[in-house]
Amino acid sequence: MQSIFILLLTLGCISIVSTYRCYSCDGDLEDDCNDPFNATGGITDHHKEEAFPGEACTKTKLESKGGSTVERDTNSRGPYYCIGGQNGCKKYNRDGVTATVCCCTSDLCNGVSIVQQKLLTVFLTISTLAVFAYRWY
Predict the structure, then answer these.
(1) Which residues form the signal peptide (predicted)?
(2) Distance CA 85, CA 103 (A)
(3) What is the pLDDT of residues 49-93, one digit of tens each?
(4) Of 18, 59, 66, 128, which one's alpha carbon is 20 to 30 angstroms from that of 48?
């Protein structure tokens, strides 16, 4: 049982250090970048960039009375830009504009409406809890 746990932990670490790509586009310039996102329209490989270690993919949606626009990019502004956490969203209002900032850390994750959690992370968490429950009961 311990060897299975060590194997799962090792595979999880490999997944964490692997690189991933983010969509990079501006809805003001390209309508396919806005919601609903159209990855098969005008979005090409040119709009996909590799995230450096410590960076996250971002999706920022700005909404006002005049409409809305979306920007998708990598987080090159530092860790404080992910106000909702590395895999979450946060909404705030300022001067009549509602901004929703989402950050995520999996391949092309900023192309979906809801930020998705890594399946492997969830599996490892459940596996770890199962191992501890098995040992204690």
Answers:
(1) 1-19
(2) 7
(3) 999 888 889 999 999 999 999 999 998 776 667 877 878 899 999
(4) 66
Q: How confident is the model at residue 115 (pLDDT cuts 50, 70, 90)?
A: very low
Cis bond before residue 53 (omega within 30° of 0):
no
CB distance 32 to 43 below 8 Å: yes
CA angle at residue 114 from 111 to 119, to 5 degrees?
90
Instruction: Please give the pLDDT value at position 34.
Output: 94
For domain 1-130, give the CATH number: 2.10.60.10
What ranges do the domains of the chain cover? 1-130
| DSSP β-bridge partners for residue 71 | 26, 60
103, 76 contact by CB (below 8 A): no
